[in-house]
Amino acid sequence: MATLELKNLHVALEDGTPIVNGVDLTVSSGEVHAIMGPNGSGKSTLAYAIAGHPAYQVTGGQIVLDGVDITEAGADERAQGGLFLAFQYPHAIPGVTVTNFLRQALNAVRKARNGGVDDPMPVPEFRKLFLAKMDDLKVSRELASRYLNDGFSGGEKKRVEILQMAMLRPRIAVLDETDSGLDIDALKVVAEGVQQLVGPEMGALVITHYNRILKYIKPDFVHVFVDGKIVEQGGAELAEKLEVSGYEEWEKEGVTA
Fold first, then answer.
1. What is the pTM of this model?
2. pLDDT < 70 positions in the chain
3. Which of 8, 9, 66, 228 stands the most exposed, by the fewest C-beta atoms within 10 Å?
């Protein structure tokens, strides 16, 4: 079983501005946790801190993956250990094709999991797996030879993010507002891809502002995130409540406090 634990996590920007203010959260394989909060509440900062982005500094607490403290680990070490971050705004990488990027990433993960010994997937096996996953996620095969995210539509970028997840098979996946900018058809495809992968070997932390993606990815736990901390927790019904009432209740409490 995979487990990601955040223990009293505090995160600040490079200039010292505090953003995340004491988060306790445990995500295990087979579980979908949703973090919902208003814009500017610190949701994306939390995601980047979990993934090891150098612009965000952990100023207190711990990030623990499968019992190993990775608070000081580099982003590459976290990825090799089984963490995956799907970006809200995936970056384009001109000069690197989707196929080459995924083959190099997959082989890097295989090497790490093989104790540092090279264990590249044979090209025919990789191609068979790659094309099958592209078809499953309705990713146009034409994208395989194009530079990663270069000139892609919003939907194409998000589908390729989930394609990466399907190929790398992480232990814990963090999705930072993956539903942003998607039409309903792309949203369904992305959600189905995530739902297929969550199970005995993978858990997911879905960060979102709206409930719409949670209609397709059923959360086991919903956490309301306001002012850099979790202020309420519940089941899927909490997401439905938020869609009706919004975050005003907790934002007012924060102002009062």
1. 0.91
2. 252-257
3. 8
